Amino acid sequence: MDSDIRIINETSGKRLAVAGGNYRIVISGEETDNRFAVIEMTVPPNGGPPPHSHPNTHETFYVLEGEVEFKTEKGKTVVSKGGFVEIPFGGAVHCFKNTSKAFAKLLCTVMPAGLEKIFEAVGQPVSEGDFLPVPEMTEERKNFLQNLDEKFGQKTFPPDYLD
Questions:
Q1: Crossing angle of helices 115-122/139-152, nearest 10°?
Q2: One short Pfam family name for this protein (predicted)?
Protein backbone atom coordinates (compact mmCIF):
# COMPACT_ATOMS: atom_id res chain seq x y z
CA MET A 1 0.00 0.00 0.00
CA ASP A 2 1.15 3.52 -0.78
CA SER A 3 2.29 5.30 2.41
CA ASP A 4 1.42 8.77 1.15
CA ILE A 5 -1.39 10.68 2.81
CA ARG A 6 -4.52 10.67 0.66
CA ILE A 7 -7.01 13.48 0.46
CA ILE A 8 -10.29 12.59 -1.19
CA ASN A 9 -12.64 15.37 -2.24
CA GLU A 10 -16.44 15.32 -2.07
CA THR A 11 -16.86 14.50 -5.76
CA SER A 12 -14.49 11.50 -5.84
CA GLY A 13 -15.67 7.93 -5.54
CA LYS A 14 -18.16 5.68 -7.21
CA ARG A 15 -21.85 6.59 -6.65
CA LEU A 16 -24.41 3.80 -6.64
CA ALA A 17 -28.16 3.45 -6.14
CA VAL A 18 -28.44 0.94 -3.26
CA ALA A 19 -31.51 0.10 -1.12
CA GLY A 20 -33.30 3.26 -2.30
CA GLY A 21 -30.33 5.43 -1.34
CA ASN A 22 -27.36 7.08 -3.03
CA TYR A 23 -24.12 5.48 -1.78
CA ARG A 24 -20.68 6.91 -2.53
CA ILE A 25 -17.69 4.64 -2.06
CA VAL A 26 -15.29 7.20 -0.61
CA ILE A 27 -12.40 4.74 -0.40
CA SER A 28 -12.53 1.08 -1.38
CA GLY A 29 -10.70 -1.98 -0.17
CA GLU A 30 -8.69 -1.95 -3.37
CA GLU A 31 -7.18 1.32 -2.14
CA THR A 32 -6.50 0.14 1.44
CA ASP A 33 -5.10 -3.38 0.96
CA ASN A 34 -8.62 -4.53 1.96
CA ARG A 35 -8.12 -3.27 5.50
CA PHE A 36 -11.20 -1.04 5.41
CA ALA A 37 -13.63 0.80 3.16
CA VAL A 38 -15.64 3.98 3.75
CA ILE A 39 -19.07 4.56 2.23
CA GLU A 40 -21.12 7.76 2.42
CA MET A 41 -24.82 6.88 2.40
CA THR A 42 -27.49 9.42 1.51
CA VAL A 43 -30.80 7.89 2.55
CA PRO A 44 -34.15 9.33 1.45
CA PRO A 45 -37.28 9.13 3.59
CA ASN A 46 -38.35 5.46 3.94
CA GLY A 47 -34.98 4.30 2.54
CA GLY A 48 -32.65 1.79 4.12
CA PRO A 49 -31.52 -1.84 3.80
CA PRO A 50 -33.43 -4.93 4.98
CA PRO A 51 -32.29 -6.73 8.14
CA HIS A 52 -28.97 -8.45 7.56
CA SER A 53 -25.87 -9.78 9.30
CA HIS A 54 -22.24 -10.20 8.35
CA PRO A 55 -20.24 -11.99 11.06
CA ASN A 56 -16.83 -11.30 9.54
CA THR A 57 -17.25 -7.54 9.17
CA HIS A 58 -16.90 -4.82 11.81
CA GLU A 59 -19.11 -1.93 10.71
CA THR A 60 -19.61 1.57 12.05
CA PHE A 61 -22.06 4.34 11.18
CA TYR A 62 -21.73 8.03 11.98
CA VAL A 63 -24.82 10.15 11.30
CA LEU A 64 -23.72 13.28 9.43
CA GLU A 65 -27.20 14.70 8.74
CA GLY A 66 -30.77 13.86 9.72
CA GLU A 67 -31.74 10.74 11.62
CA VAL A 68 -32.43 7.05 11.07
CA GLU A 69 -34.22 4.39 13.05
CA PHE A 70 -31.69 1.67 13.78
CA LYS A 71 -33.04 -1.82 14.57
CA THR A 72 -31.32 -4.80 16.15
CA GLU A 73 -32.59 -7.95 17.83
CA LYS A 74 -32.52 -5.97 21.11
CA GLY A 75 -34.86 -3.23 19.87
CA LYS A 76 -34.86 0.00 17.94
CA THR A 77 -33.36 3.42 18.50
CA VAL A 78 -33.49 6.68 16.61
CA VAL A 79 -29.95 7.85 15.90
CA SER A 80 -29.63 11.54 15.04
CA LYS A 81 -26.92 13.83 13.69
CA GLY A 82 -23.70 13.23 15.61
CA GLY A 83 -24.80 9.76 16.72
CA PHE A 84 -22.61 6.71 16.22
CA VAL A 85 -23.40 3.01 15.85
CA GLU A 86 -20.92 0.14 16.05
CA ILE A 87 -21.68 -3.36 14.74
CA PRO A 88 -18.85 -5.58 16.05
CA PHE A 89 -17.68 -8.79 14.50
CA GLY A 90 -20.05 -11.67 15.23
CA GLY A 91 -23.07 -11.28 13.01
CA ALA A 92 -25.63 -9.23 14.96
CA VAL A 93 -28.72 -8.74 12.80
CA HIS A 94 -29.32 -5.07 12.06
CA CYS A 95 -30.89 -2.60 9.67
CA PHE A 96 -31.77 1.06 9.53
CA LYS A 97 -34.55 3.08 7.96
CA ASN A 98 -35.00 6.78 7.48
CA THR A 99 -38.37 7.25 9.19
CA SER A 100 -38.20 11.06 8.94
CA LYS A 101 -39.39 13.35 6.17
CA ALA A 102 -35.87 14.67 5.46
CA PHE A 103 -32.82 13.04 3.90
CA ALA A 104 -30.27 11.44 6.19
CA LYS A 105 -26.56 11.08 5.52
CA LEU A 106 -24.38 8.43 7.16
CA LEU A 107 -20.68 7.68 7.01
CA CYS A 108 -20.15 3.92 7.13
CA THR A 109 -16.80 2.24 7.71
CA VAL A 110 -16.33 -1.51 7.20
CA MET A 111 -13.35 -3.50 8.40
CA PRO A 112 -12.04 -5.45 6.65
CA ALA A 113 -13.19 -4.10 3.32
CA GLY A 114 -15.54 -6.15 1.19
CA LEU A 115 -19.05 -4.91 1.92
CA GLU A 116 -18.59 -2.24 -0.74
CA LYS A 117 -18.30 -5.10 -3.27
CA ILE A 118 -21.88 -6.10 -2.44
CA PHE A 119 -22.96 -2.49 -3.05
CA GLU A 120 -21.14 -2.51 -6.39
CA ALA A 121 -22.88 -5.76 -7.36
CA VAL A 122 -26.43 -4.73 -6.39
CA GLY A 123 -26.21 -1.02 -7.13
CA GLN A 124 -26.56 0.93 -10.32
CA PRO A 125 -24.30 3.88 -11.14
CA VAL A 126 -25.97 7.23 -10.40
CA SER A 127 -25.07 10.88 -10.07
CA GLU A 128 -25.16 12.79 -6.80
CA GLY A 129 -28.77 13.51 -5.90
CA ASP A 130 -30.19 10.69 -8.04
CA PHE A 131 -32.33 8.10 -6.27
CA LEU A 132 -33.66 5.03 -8.04
CA PRO A 133 -36.51 2.88 -6.78
CA VAL A 134 -35.60 -0.40 -5.10
CA PRO A 135 -35.68 -3.11 -7.80
CA GLU A 136 -38.68 -5.43 -7.82
CA MET A 137 -38.07 -8.63 -5.83
CA THR A 138 -38.46 -11.18 -8.62
CA GLU A 139 -37.33 -14.81 -8.24
CA GLU A 140 -34.30 -13.98 -10.36
CA ARG A 141 -33.44 -11.05 -8.05
CA LYS A 142 -33.91 -13.23 -4.94
CA ASN A 143 -31.52 -15.83 -6.35
CA PHE A 144 -29.01 -13.14 -7.30
CA LEU A 145 -29.09 -11.64 -3.77
CA GLN A 146 -28.85 -15.07 -2.13
CA ASN A 147 -25.78 -15.88 -4.24
CA LEU A 148 -24.20 -12.57 -3.21
CA ASP A 149 -24.91 -13.30 0.45
CA GLU A 150 -23.19 -16.67 0.14
CA LYS A 151 -20.23 -15.22 -1.75
CA PHE A 152 -19.65 -12.46 0.83
CA GLY A 153 -20.59 -14.30 4.03
CA GLN A 154 -23.69 -12.23 4.67
CA LYS A 155 -27.24 -13.22 5.50
CA THR A 156 -30.31 -11.18 4.58
CA PHE A 157 -33.59 -11.55 6.46
CA PRO A 158 -37.21 -10.69 5.54
CA PRO A 159 -38.09 -6.98 5.91
CA ASP A 160 -40.25 -7.64 9.02
CA TYR A 161 -37.67 -9.85 10.79
CA LEU A 162 -36.87 -7.27 13.48
CA ASP A 163 -40.43 -6.00 14.00
A1: 160
A2: Cupin_2
159 to 26, 95, 112: CA distances (angstroms):
28, 9, 26
pTM: 0.94
Mean residue pLDDT across the chain: 95
In 3D space, the residue among 21, 46, 45, 44 whose CA is nearest the CA of residue 126 turns out to be 21
Domain residue spans of the chain? 14-127+135-156
Supply φ then ψ for residue 130, to 5 degrees: -90, 135
Q: What's at 101, amino acid-wise?
A: K
For the stretch 118-158, pLDDT in tens is 999 999 999 999 999 999 989 999 999 999 999 999 999 99
Ordered DSSP codes for 88-119? -TT---EEEE--SSS-EEEEEEEESS-HHHHH
- Tell me the pLDDT band of 2, cut-offs 50, 70 and 90: low
List Cβ neighbours of 150 (8 Å cut-off, separation of 6 or more): none
Q: Is 129 left (phi over 0), alpha (psi -120 to 50) or beta?
A: left
Over residues 89-99, the mean pLDDT reads 96
